[in-house]
Amino acid sequence: MATIHSTAIVDPAAELADDVQVEAYAIIGPHVSIGRGGIIKSHSVIEGPTVIGTDCHIGPGAYVGLDGQHLQFLKKPLEERRQCWLIIGNNVLIRESASVHRATHPGRERATRIDDNCTLMGAAHVGHDCVVESHVILANAALLGGHCHIGQRSFLGGGCTLHQFNRVGRLAMVGGNQAVGQEVPPFAAMLWGGLKGYNAVGCRRAGISRAGIFSIRAAYQCIHTYRTKTSAMAAMREIEPMTGEICEILEFYAKSKRGIQPSVQHLDRRIEEREGSD
């Protein structure tokens, strides 16, 4: 039977595995399911429909499964809002003051989703309708607007902010305090407002082959050389051998709707051009 502190409030309609621990002053609403090994620390609030996998630690003072901060959605009847889901995988850590909001569209298949082995550090925020793939780390106060998609093993630095409907590719790294208005391709390292290069340490730790790393390096040389997306893609298609990593970058570029963060080298040139025109 779950261990529930006497000051905690757990709705009878919530489903808790037998070894779940609920600490003081936590509140768990109806239509919440928490898998085995879960620990809900003090003052955390969980609303549903929310499914939380095994071995997840939440809080203290985390806010999980609340309504999305979408003004039109909040005007809908409560019964309709309660058909919108949040699904959290296994071994997810959500630290103090972090917040994760449910989707704004009904049905489990359209849920806000956080996959296995993710970490949300203190005050991080995952907005409505986001998808955060496995092994992602959001450092303190990293903020995702609604409908963002974060690829596997990405790292988002403290205080960075992502515009809604944005994407970050697999194994990308975004530096602290970066304002991300356009998309960050796979394997990228973003700093100083643009693409600084590729995430060399992350790629090596992920076990990417030497050939794959060489091809990623060549692809980012194309990004630094050519200022337009079309030109950069054309240059990348000429790289040999055409590895899976290059194909992944090209596919990301082809699906881009918000545009790609520019190379910092191109940003420097723009600054020089503006200063020269003055």
List keywords for this structure.
UDP N-Acetylglucosamine Acyltransferase, domain 1, 7 helices, eleven-stranded mixed β-sheet, single chain, 28 strands
CATH homologous superfamily title of the domain at 3-165 = Hexapeptide repeat proteins
Number of alpha- plus pi-helical segments: 7
Annotated CATH architecture of the domain at 3-165? 3 Solenoid
Assembly status? single chain
Structural class: alpha/beta
Query: How many strands in all?
Result: 28
User: Radius of gyration, Cα only, in angstroms?
Assistant: 21 Å
Question: Layout of SSEs?
Answer:
Blueprint: E1 3-4, E2 9-10, E3 15-16, E4 21-22, E5 27-28, E6 32-34, E7 39-40, E8 45-46, E9 50-52, E10 57-58, E11 63-66, H1 71-74, H2 78-81, E12 86-88, E13 93-94, E14 99-101, E15 112-114, E16 119-120, E17 125-126, E18 131-132, E19 137-138, E20 143-144, E21 149-150, E22 155-156, E23 161-162, E24 167-168, E25 173-174, E26 179-180, E27 188-191, E28 194-198, H3 200-205, H4 210-225, H5 229-236, H6 244-254, H7 264-277
Parallel strand pairs: 1-4, 2-5, 3-6, 4-7, 5-8, 6-9, 7-10, 8-11, 9-12, 10-13, 11-14, 12-15, 13-16, 14-17, 15-18, 16-19, 17-20, 18-21, 19-22, 20-23, 21-24, 22-25, 23-26, 25-27
Antiparallel strand pairs: 27-28
Helix pairs in contact: 4-5, 4-6
